Amino acid sequence: MMIDEEIARIREFGLQLVNILGLESKPVGVRFIKQGEASQFEGERLQQHRYCQALMKARRGTKVILDAEGIACPAAAAAFGFRPLPEGLRSGQGLVGFGIVSDPSVGRRMFEGMSRFEMGSLQQLELFPLDQAEAYPDVVVVEGPVEHLMWINLAYLHAIGGDRVQGSTAILQATCVDSTIIPFLENRLNFGMGCYGCREATDLGLSETVVGFPTPMLEKIVEHIVFLGQKAIPNSRSKKVLATLEKRQTG
């Protein structure tokens, strides 16, 4: 299959992120296919999978499709507009039952503030390793150690001219809302600390978290990652300043 120059560049950017940062899994491209939109994407059509689990499969190398029939998480299903939020979650009582909050009004407010797609607007989600892209993704999502993702945030900050980077999260729906929907709807990078759901349902490590950004920012982010890889990243990881301190203390 022939791929055009733009998609070839997307693939190369995915490889550069892995190689320079030392990521142990692949950045993921996510496409939103609207109702009635044609797609020739070939991937595993998932059944009874949460969105965070679809993301896990994609970052481990598998191309996947998730739709209203296949998505298992009711909160993510509501966020992507596949089906309404169940009353138990909407009321906040569900989060009390999970032991996440003790006051249902807090849980209710958490869901009220959830960014979401219009109900019924999407046909399916397509997730794929960025270095295997066959079409232009809407969003790039990266899971990995906090230090690795720190450099992505710094590269994004540089790309937007030095403005402070804002993170928005309810410590809930970290992969679907925080790292996929907010970056798309608000056209900006977003990051959080992970959440109860994705940490229970996937292989996301204790020291790992997730960040997402709109794909049009990818080139500038990678451009600065390359720059950081020449000096800042290796210098920071060398911990020479710490070694100097320890040498003084033991000398």
Query: Gyration radius, to the nearest Å?
Result: 19 Å
Average pLDDT: 96
Number of DSSP helices?
12
Helical content, roughly?
40-55%
Tally of extended strands? 7
The ordered string of helix (H) and strand (E) elements is HEEHEHHHHEEHHEHEHHH
CA-based shape: globular
Question: Which secondary-structure class do the elements indicate?
Answer: alpha+beta
List low-confidence stretches. Answer: none
Strand portion = 5-15%
- Biggest sheet features: 7 strands, mixed
Main sheet: strand order: 2-3-4-1-5-7-6
Span between termini: 63 Å
Notes on the protein architecture:
- β2 (44-45), α2 (51-59) and β3 form a beta-alpha-beta unit.
- A 7-stranded mixed β-sheet has the order 2-3-4-1-5-7-6.
- With 251 residues, the protein is α+β, with helices and mostly antiparallel strands.
- α7 (146-159) crosses α10.
- It has helices at residues 5-21, 51-59, 74-79, 87-90, 93-97, 104-112, 146-159, 174-186, 196-201, 218-230, 232-238, 240-250, and strands at residues 28-34, 44-45, 64-67, 122-129, 139-145, 190-191, 208-214.
- 45% of the residues lie in helices and 15% in strands.
- It contains 12 helices and 7 strands.
- The model has no long low-confidence stretch (mean pLDDT 96).
- The protein is globular.
- The protein has one domain (5-250).
